[in-house]
Design brief:
about 350 residues, alpha/beta, six-stranded parallel beta sheet, 16 helices, about 50% helix, about 15% strand
Length: about 350
């Protein structure tokens, strides 16, 4: 088949996902993209210029068997502008209904309607996790229920019944030879976007408390920063002193090397629909310390919940303390979790995408 993958926010994990599927699909996947910046404008207005780019691609290369759009595209708007018709699939990386409200305006929360219209316009919708699927439709009931009349509520079960779950594909095979743990003190990795919903402040506070207990450990803070960071972050990082071995974004090869060195990987997120960075780190051999909520109970097998999942700040400190004081036991659990994460490699996931899109076409 010929598939046109439409991604108006072509950067970071969105870019990795699009290029990964293109490279591993048994079909011809052509990417139609915009630069990965100004996310609000891409979500609200990107469909106009994406429709122009789509029309040009069809003029040059022909009509595809199916369109594959992502949750950063107003798919309903795009289909209204283009006169070319092909079945349309929607892949939900995230949605604007379930994001935490911290620092968000009413205009931003209204962006969730764009996701709803896209889901209505699509012939099929896939979510990157079951948690995401469930939370999206629950959030929709609240969002549409607040409308003054004709609330669309009768359409929610229709869209939900036709939806499915397809995990994010990840190039995990690249990490197969990167087991490079070194040093006597365990390396604790926090590898997320430096945004408020990822909870960096909580992580730094707990690490400071553990440092005050004179526990031996090192800390690496990876991930991109798109906004000015609070001064408190710099002060907390400085307070950890020589324990901090890295701060900031890394090129791909250096980041992969860091994954291979990490003994423990931590999430303090308030929002997470899949968890690519955690999946990569666990596959590379790190023991996960994760919140007992969001997507994480789905990501970790139930028999390891007690060891890996925590509740509240005290629970986070307790799980980290145990992993630092019992490195052999933590490493044994990490070894058991590695093949679980391997199920998200593109070699396993891409055929599932192909089957999904074939059925739509």
């Amino acid at each position: 088949m010929r598939i046109y993958l439409l991604e108006p926010y072509f950067t970071g994990s969105h870019r990795q996902w699009a290029e990964g599927y293109r490279d591993h699909s048994r079909h011809e996947v052509r990417l139609i993209t915009h630069e990965g910046r100004f996310w609000k404008w891409r979500l609200r207005g990107g469909f106009v210029t994406m429709a122009e780019a789509l029309d040009e691609a069809i003029r040059v290369h022909g009509l595809p068997d199916v369109f594959l759009a992502t949750s950063m595209l107003d798919l309903a708007g795009l289909l209204g502008l283009t006169r070319h018709r092909a079945p349309a699939a929607l892949y939900m990386h995230e949605n604007q209904i379930n994001y935490p409200s911290v620092g968000r305006t009413q205009v931003e929360t209204d962006h969730g309607l764009v996701n709803w219209y896209a889901a209505l316009a699509a012939d099929s919708v896939a979510f990157n996790s079951d948690f995401h699927r469930r939370s999206f439709f629950t959030g929709l009931e609240a969002l549409l229920g607040a409308a003054p009349d004709r609330r669309h509520l009768h359409l929610i079960p229709v869209v939900e019944a036709g939806s499915s779950v397809l995990p994010v594909g990840i190039d995990l095979a690249r990490l197969d030879d990167r087991f490079g743990r070194q040093g006597s003190a365990p390396l604790v990795l926090w590898n997320h976007r430096w945004d408020p919903d990822k909870g960096l402040a909580v992580f730094l506070e707990v690490m400071g408390e553990l440092a005050a207990e004179r526990l031996e450990f090192r800390v690496a803070l990876a991930g991109e920063s798109f906004v000015t960071q609070p001064e408190e972050h710099a002060a907390a990082i400085g307070g950890l002193g020589s324990r901090v071995v890295h701060v900031g974004h890394l090129p791909p090869l250096e980041y992969d090397r860091l994954l291979g060195e990490a003994d423990i990987v931590v999430s303090t997120a308030e929002q997470e629909f899949f968890g690519v960075s955690i999946t990569e780190a666990v596959y590379a051999g790190a023991f996960p310390v994760l919140p007992d909520r969001l997507v994480y109970p789905e990501r970790i097998p139930e028999e390891h919940h007690d060891a890996c999942l925590y509740r509240g700040r005290k629970g986070l400190a307790r799980r980290l303390r145990w992993a630092m004081e019992h490195p052999t036991d933590a490493a044994e659990i990490a070894t058991r979790l590695r093949p679980v994460m391997g199920a998200f490699d593109w070699s396993v996931v891409a055929p599932r995408y192909d089957d999904w899109l074939e059925a739509i076409a």
